[in-house]
């Protein structure tokens, strides 16, 4: 859950001045809990310093509004925050005697008071680190939720010379993607290999799909069959710029070599930026690649199928959702509605089991075509909403590999007093059969993984299987 951070020189000077000022007396702080969860109204203003009062506002917002906030043990959040605080002190060689975690009782208000007192005593000893300590504390509190849809967005900037559509990183994708590397990367089977070369350093070094990555900065990507945190180095985010050393194997030739790739900006293929792409396969199959559930994307998929249908009889649809990171649940429901009417596509539930239903939009015209959906570990969030509905409602078949299991629930944004955005689900997502999908994913009806040899040869076994199913 690493977040992009940078600061312009003038802003850095202002923040430095703010960080060296004394901690404001409690009487001057706003009543954060009273306005804990304010929804954004228009564009946020300029971001200001993160303070203990911002942390309190976020803490109160989580406990009052997060879908399981009523039953959370708030001590876990405060402990995670204080752990991050002390670790940051150690990283800076500035540990202080006052940095001692207070005893917590389970009384949320009393525990906050004890935490705040210890926090202020600590940060008053290192005023030049106050802003950084506040940031890592709040990041840790949000991370302690263990929720893939909980985020605190702050200091989000782009690299210099960024042009709309540019990528940043090493310029490659592997069979373990970025979100997996940051979270539960153990779900991927060995070996680790390049699936796509997008540009940048990877392209300049001559990497190809199918190249097996045997080590990353000297560490094995898999140990005892389980993926390791070393894989995260493949997906640096700005301003991370440390070179990454890879040991590679090209199975087709037996060649082994090492290469060092430096992260940077690279121009991406414009085709990969299109949310919806379509083509005709075997003269009667509509193939549609959908990279995200962006606004109006369901309509764009349906229009693409309609155009392919003009002047011919289609016998089926292949919807390729591999690498689809999600988006709007409304778009997912609308797309399901083109294949079935009168059904529940998902449930959104509170911690006490009170659920709202997402139902098909029966104004959407039915396609009346057989459906096969291609899925993989890159299919997340709204993509899993759609995939689980296809499977549970039996409106099509899933081919490929299990989805990501990244669907805690639709996130709602809240504006903090320093003009940063805290977002998290207020309800938890369940599939049409009321099954939990979060952290588990949706299994395919036909398990067809990509292998290094397939990638190297440009073969797509999942697509081949989908065509076979539709021609039966």
Structure description:
Helix 3 (74-91) runs parallel beside helix 4, helix 3 (74-91) packs across helix 5 (130-143) and helix 8 runs parallel beside helix 9. The protein is globular and about 75 Å long. A hairpin with a 4-residue loop joins strand 8 (244-250) and strand 9 (255-261). It has helices at residues 9-20, 52-65, 74-91, 108-123, 130-143, 178-182, 200-204, 297-309, 329-336, 382-392, 452-457, 461-471; strands at 151-153, 167-169, 172-174, 194-197, 212-216, 222-223, 226-227, 244-250, 255-261, 264-266, 276-281, 285-290, 316-320, 344-349, 355-359, 371-375, 397-400, 411-415, 421-425, 428-430, 446-447. It is built from 12 helices and 21 strands. It has 472 residues and is α+β, with helices and mostly antiparallel strands. Strands 11-12-13-16-17-21 form a 6-stranded mixed β-sheet, with helices on both faces. The longest helix has 18 residues, at 74-91. The chain starts with 8 loop residues before the first helix and ends with a helix.
